């Protein structure tokens, strides 16, 4: 009778014992702390200071085939814009080699009859040659030249008080949430997902594989510990490590890099916890398949880390991918987490976004934990 | 000396060829990853949803909206009926951009006065938002041009020509960069884990008691890793060229020449990490600590020009930066040998440095 | 009769559908209150049987009843009643001694005052009290094993399973382990002790002998030992080469088995045969053949049909004109310091051509450090190590080309085939093309590797792994062969075969350096140095060491007794 009453308490004690052991091990191997603390700081630092989509200046070549007042005025407009660093020549051939070598990103050509075309012609007055090998830059250069051209025309028509142009449609863009369009503001939250994925999937897969390799799993299995207790006890410290790492990253992002945080901390905790569960579930599932560290590392890099990087809207747009890959992205937990993080940081608590993401994370975490429970053995064969 | 080296090299190659895991990791998975992720890395934006809130009943407004409807960039257009609906659509990510046209749009245009179109963009995805904004500006500009033509001979906008990749084929852009990064990953994998693994298996001692010198072991580890990584790169190259149809306009000889230097520098770094690590977990984590920043700073995902100057200087010491540049150049442009050389000698310096550092560390660990 | 704890009924186990058969229709019983030995060669199925009893594996056929529970249905109950110490002790090397104990106390629900008392008692019992804050990874082999035992005993089990607890453990620790196990047995616990060493099996009350998954003997060890009574002899007082005498004895038709035992040769005769004459064995004028009491190992060898016969194919003309006084290996005041700790302190000795020289000593005493400095794996802090007259610090490459090395654990490339391994080592030692072909062909023939040439080295049977490892180590015809615990965990039959080859090489003038914990193996040495606390405390021939340790209490000590006595003697003198 007494025996039976003690069973749940024994279970908790076993979990506690295992958790304590695992925590000590985490703290003693410096490589764990490197992943949880050093790596996030390196990444945040890079995204905070260096790696960015925000364009600075593009070096371009400007070809003025025939200097005239008009071409001079437009050249000045280009040179004064914050977008371009200008080098001028009379012949486009002077720049071809530079474009090939990547020293300049584009060539703007003002033809000899620039003035004529500018006011009259049906033919375009300006030719822009860009490097198609870098579509993003190419598109930006084209857009900027277009904008500068439109402005210049307006200015010209005003200064000469010529009724040259009819009233036109003006575009007034407003970028919400991130008006200064700083990519730091969305890359930094996104990188938290990558780090938690590494802790959740890579470290757990490695740590379980190591227990098999070193033969300690055999000794554990020979004790009265149950499989659920074993999983909880092993995962709890990594869960905590992930949450600590998340808090460090968020604090660094907000206080050091000035990324706004507009959502609620409670929701942040909730989605992070769910994401950690999904990542841990994936790591555990990998570890049930891989019993040595080499395989565990490779499988978790390919099936957890790379997808988190590519299929999360972190850097690459999922909407633009082929349909099959878009389908794949629905199974990637980082997709939901990055979406929630970007919303919580920049937009605030938007229920429709957060709830969808939470549902996705619960489904994936549940799926992996179920798969793991089915695949885990309490015996060695 | 040569006989001993040859034995070591043959052994490394055989071991990789016979171990199914290594075979998979080195020979099959890189082309597979190339195939998947080449389609994932697109920097163009398409198939996005936008929202329209049109308060105007006039014909011009409908004309303008139909331009957006006709664009392949916008897969889905949601029609809204209030400003609150705009904020809902953006907040909930239903649309990346909302277009608001005021009630007096047509009237103003008809009166020959300027009219405004407001664009609201989702700054959570500011990179995509900016590109979408670019498309919108282009559409409005064309619309303006046609409006103007009805009244005056119009100054048409800018004509743009893209060299090397006139149709902006995303694969042409994605494959060369991905090829460079995956080649680096293979180089790291085959070098950083081999020594750590031999140390755990105990075979490393067996090597150390043989007459092999530390330098010979270093060379004996570098050459096979080089051969394996080159083989893997060749498989990816063939895939990109023959299956994905990416043009290859440059010189194969120059590519392989610079790739050999590049891989030597990568393997040098890998062996250096391996000599530092005392087990495989540490080797894997060391690899991550080096590789993630190296790839991020290589211009692979974000342009180097956007980085602050001091970081741009730092990227000069990153072999991946140079090799991505060379790959883009030889695939699409046929860059001249002098440019390739200008990016090859820094890699040679890096290789010389890391290999000697690795050998030095190696020798120290023996004592 | 004490209670029956385990009943095994026609149990079979096979790994994978077409995998190797581990156990075939095995039936046996184990009882409480004494030690049951589980002996047999590597791969006989000992570990599989223990795992089945612990409920870690499921039998394909048959039933196991452990402490009154069926292993299939009541896994949980079995885990409560059975304690199991796996081969590598199941310790977390990055936890301290006390943390390991607390972990297993949590897992086995030992709480409160009971926990404090138990841990205190176990620490006293294992003499680990001074080391509670030390990381398990930093303990010596013997201490690890004691800690592993303490962890297994945190809750008093009814049945204790020990899987090869004495591999890699020195004689002193082994003796203490036995003392602890006897204490447990006195409390009524049943102990199953698996081992490849038959001198350990001999100490058990009953023993189960397994071979290729089948039970070949069950009963008291003495009963089996008595089956070779009157058939065991020693050829003593040999003048000349004892190894040649052994070879001749093994060729004699009436001899079933023979080994070197110190200065003498030990023989087991076939049933009903008479001992060979000392003259026939050319053992010298003073030699005589005297009867000696049988040992369990003799009976085991008789049961499996004796060892390899006659001369090893390695025998042949001596190399180098046989200048037997030449010093081939020399340790000259070898010293190695790690920080403040001196692992080896001015160790000196010299080994002549054709000698077998052993380094013995407790775990962590400096034996491996010395050994590693001699073969160039560690740089000495002071002093010099010379091989074939070459200083390892000054001409490492040249010196290494003259030595062969066989590591303790199998360390060939498991994913290369036998032929590829041979090719590799021939190449690494710089054999020219013609020499390489000749050497490889000779190795294949000598070790009978022809049928395995394309098999991966990792999947060879243990005996062949050893042959291949030896082949790779001697292919370049080294002057000195370094053996690091060469037959640790290896059964007597494979061990004899191995030493047959070694003896043949020695007769050709190859010098052997060997470290071992296993003192039956040390009997093969001509001389040995006992390394303790970083110093060579004594050296000499095995029989000389035994004589030095002889006392009124123990007039005929074994080498193990001698080892323990000499170490304790040294401690006493140091303390004084």
In short:
The complex is a heterotrimer of chains A (381), B (367) and C (576). By secondary structure, chain B is α/β, with parallel strands linked by helices.
- The 3D shape of chain B can be described as elongated
Number of domains of chain B: 2
Number of helices of chain A: 14
Mean pLDDT of chain A: 83
Largest chain-chain contact?
A-B, 109 and 112 residues
Q: Which runs of chain B of at least 5 residues are low in confidence (pLDDT < 50)?
A: none
Overall strand count of chain B: 5
Task: Let me know the largest β-sheet of chain B.
Answer: 4 strands, mixed
- Poorly predicted residue ranges of chain A: 1-5
- State which percent range the strand residues of chain A make up: 5-15%
- Head-to-tail CA distance between termini of chain B: 22 Å
What spatial order of strands do you see in the largest sheet of chain A? 2-1-3-4
Question: N- to C-terminal separation of chain A?
Answer: 34 Å
> What is Rg of chain A?
29 Å
Number of strands of chain A: 5
Helix and strand content put the structural class of chain A at alpha/beta
The ordered string of helix (H) and strand (E) elements of chain B is HHEHEHEHEHEHHHHHHHH
Mean pLDDT of chain B: 84
Write the SSE topology.
The complex is a heterotrimer of chains A (381), B (367) and C (576).
Chain A: H1 2-28, H2 30-50, E1 58-64, H3 69-80, E2 84-89, H4 93-101, E3 106-110, H5 114-119, E4 126-131, H6 135-159, E5 169-176, H7 184-214, H8 216-221, H9 227-256, H10 265-289, H11 293-310, H12 323-329, H13 333-347, H14 351-375
Chain B: H1 2-18, H2 20-40, E1 48-54, H3 59-70, E2 74-79, H4 83-91, E3 97-101, H5 105-110, E4 115-122, H6 126-151, E5 158-163, H7 170-201, H8 203-208, H9 214-243, H10 252-276, H11 280-296, H12 309-315, H13 319-333, H14 337-366
Parallel strand pairs in B: 1-2, 1-3
Antiparallel strand pairs in B: 3-4
Helix pairs in contact in B: 1-9, 2-7, 2-9, 7-9, 7-10, 7-11, 7-13, 9-10, 10-13, 10-14, 13-14
Chain C: E1 4-14, E2 21-31, E3 35-39, H1 46-53, E4 61-66, E5 69-70, H2 75-81, E6 82-85, H3 97-107, H4 112-126, H5 141-152, E7 159-163, H6 171-186, E8 190-195, H7 198-201, E9 206-211, E10 214-219, H8 221-226, E11 232-236, H9 242-251, E12 255-261, E13 264-269, E14 288-291, H10 296-303, E15 327-338, E16 341-352, E17 356-360, H11 367-374, E18 382-387, E19 390-391, H12 396-401, E20 403-406, H13 418-428, H14 433-446, H15 462-474, E21 480-484, H16 492-507, E22 511-515, H17 519-522, E23 527-532, E24 535-540, H18 542-549, H19 559-575
Parallel strand pairs in C: 3-8, 3-9, 6-7, 7-8, 17-22, 17-23, 20-21, 21-22
Antiparallel strand pairs in C: 1-2, 1-4, 4-5, 9-10, 11-13, 11-14, 12-13, 15-16, 15-18, 18-19, 23-24
